[in-house]
Amino acid sequence: MATFGYIMMVAALAVSLYGTLVPHIGVRTNNWNLIRSVQIGSILNFILVSLASGALIYCLVVSDFSVEYVWHHSSTDLPIFYKVTAFWGGMDGSLLLWALVQSCFTMIVAYRYQYSNREILPYVLLTLNVMMTFLLFLLVGWSNPLAIQTMVPIEGRGLNPLLQHPAMVAHPPSLYLGYIGLSVPFAFAMGAMMRGKVDNQWVMTTRRWTLVSWYFLSLGLILGGQWAYEELGWGGYWAWDPVENAAFMPWLVASAFLHSVMIQEKRNMLKVWNIVLVIIAYALSVLGTFITRSGVLNSVHAFAQSEIGPAFLVFLAIMLIFAFTLLFMRMQMLESEHKMESVLCKENAFLAQNIIFVGMAFTVLLGTTFPLLAEAIRGTKLSIQAPFFNTIITPLGCILALLMGVGTLLAWRRSSLESLKRNFLMPILVAIVLTAISSIWAGGHPLALIVIWITMFVTATIMIELGNATRIKSKQMSTNYLSGLVYVIMRNRRRYGGLIIHLGMVFMFIGLTGRLFTVEKDITLEKDQKIAIGQYELVFKGVEEFQVRNATHRAASIEVWEDGKMTEILKPAKSFYPTQPDPLTEVAIRRSLMEDLYLVFSSENATENSSVTLKIFINPLVLWAWMSLPCFTLGIGICLSYRPKSLVQHESVMRSQYISSTV
Questions:
Q1: pTM, rounded to two decimals
Q2: CA–CA gap between residue 493 and residue 514 (Å, rounded)
Q3: How many angstroms separate the CA atoms of 90 and 145, rounded?
Q4: Cα-Cα-Cα-Cα dihedral of 517, 522, 526, 530, to 10°?
Q5: What is d(CA 258, CA 662) in angstroms, rounded to the nearest whole number?
Q6: What is the spatial distance between Cα 527 and Cα 540, in angstroms, rounded to a whole number?
Q7: I want to staple 174 with a disulfide (CB 3.0 to 4.6 A). Which of 219, 364, 484, 500 is the partner?
């Protein structure tokens, strides 16, 4: 089966090479049959990579330890659920998953846009096939997940216990979907410039791809935060880890593109800027892969050092040189048709957001890569920690959040002073009142009060906007407010879907604000001893041992009391896996809307009274950060249901012309 899978990868490499050579020939000779063969090749490529992926999954499920990757990342005691997820639990398997998703996206592009983007499609497919060729070349040559070893072990090393968590089932594939989704806008931008057709068509086509990529990056980041919160036992969910940063940077740049692309659609401005953003977003996804797979940075997420890390760096350099050279050659064709007409307009608010997004991405890039540069140039080992990032990102994030509300209230082109007074007065007053009320909880913390005011202001702008539109439409239709709200959202899905996403960002900011009030304490408890912390009383009842799947847990049983009543029994534990020499920490969490009680079993003390040492966190507002995901999901779903009329009409015309020409 492993040999079969390897042959499939070699065949897929041959098909990808064909796809990089033939499209240009087809355009030069005006032979659409050659382009059609590349489209058929995209289906064949997806089938071949799927068969190779299926072969690896089969080997994992049956515990075929003759395959070196299976031996490294699986074991017989591993539940079948995690045997399948071991497919992306290691470097080689995750690279095969990357190729699988890339081939799927290439196939979708080949057939979805064969009419609407007929002129640039050959070069789009050429670009995507170059990416596929690079990935398959690595898989066949240096990173083969189906490599056979001569000595067949009886047992495997097992999947890293840290990865045996439900969030890790969806977290890596979500990030891959986000990373690889950004390759499609990049391919369309390259195709448009290579063909010399740099109108707004490619932008409107790729907007939905960018939305989907942005959503999956968001999903991956949030699920990764939940995994870190529940598995690593340090009491938080974001630590500016290099691999966290690698996913955060393309998310920031994709966010900038989604805002600036509206300016290009409405005003034919920022054409060069949008192409630069697309190039940078994809480049950062490749850079993230280099960071993860090169072994040059220490991270709980990173794979071991390998030979393919430098290959990604070389690919990134070639891609950037080619893309920016092409952009320079097409610069005159990308001149803006209009200029800013006023300082106080939505265009400037979006532009300011873009500058901040890119500034944040550059800050994260600098903090992540500077230690590498310092060591390479001067031989000095440096470590840039969270305070550096927090010092710069926190004020930029506050300004960005404020601009979410300001941009909602400004008009396109110019805003009159009268409209500014009318639109801004009520949100500002509501934010002041709610901040004054919240100051009782915040205790006068300056940064917390600033963030609370901003989030209340943004929330007020969203609610007032939705409320006014709903009230007017309900009167016009003589219907209830719920029907009016649905009608308003469906009539302008792009705008109100975006506002719902902004509401999700408000929840995220509220959740992050809770980190300012975290309580952390180390305590030692003897059996039946009670201790008070915050509003809770904790009673240690003893140590228990039990089995959870393939791990043995040794847990401290802790009763949680509130207001004189026992509300829950928490069992923070140490888990012991057959294939791992050291125990892992299993935290116990009591969740509520306002705060989490978070317990970590630090150690068991062999004393006469059998005491345990616990690390206790009280983390306020964590649930609010997780609540952002449902808002993102709803907002993205509404936005994706919208398609510009001009795009629909263009696709209809192109389809009709194609049918007429073939007849």
A1: 0.92
A2: 32
A3: 9
A4: -20
A5: 37
A6: 5
A7: 219
Cα 385 to the chain's mean position, in Å?
Answer: 22
Cβ count within 10 A of residue 341: 12
Rounded Cα distance, 381 and 371, in Å? 7
Q: pLDDT of 138-197, one tens digit each?
A: 999 888 999 998 888 888 888 877 777 787 778 888 998 999 999 999 999 999 999 988
In angstroms, rounded to a whole number, what is the distance separating the alpha carbons of residues 574 and 551? Answer: 10
232 — pLDDT class (breaks 50, 70, 90): confident
Q: What is the DSSP letter of 216?
A: H
User: How crowded is residue 466: how many other Cβ atoms within 10 Å of its Cβ?
Assistant: 17
Residue with tokens 């990757």: 69
8 Å CB contact between 364 and 241: no
Q: Is the CB of residue 71 less than 8 Å from the CB of residue 89?
A: no
Instruction: Please say if the pLDDT value at position 130 is more than 90.
Output: yes
User: pLDDT band for position 302 (50/70/90)?
Assistant: very low
Look up tokens 């960002």; give the residue. Answer: 505
DSSP notation for 469-533: HHHHHHHHHT--HHHHHHHHHHHTHHHHHHHHHHHHHHHHHHHHHGGGG-EEEEEEE-TT-EEEE
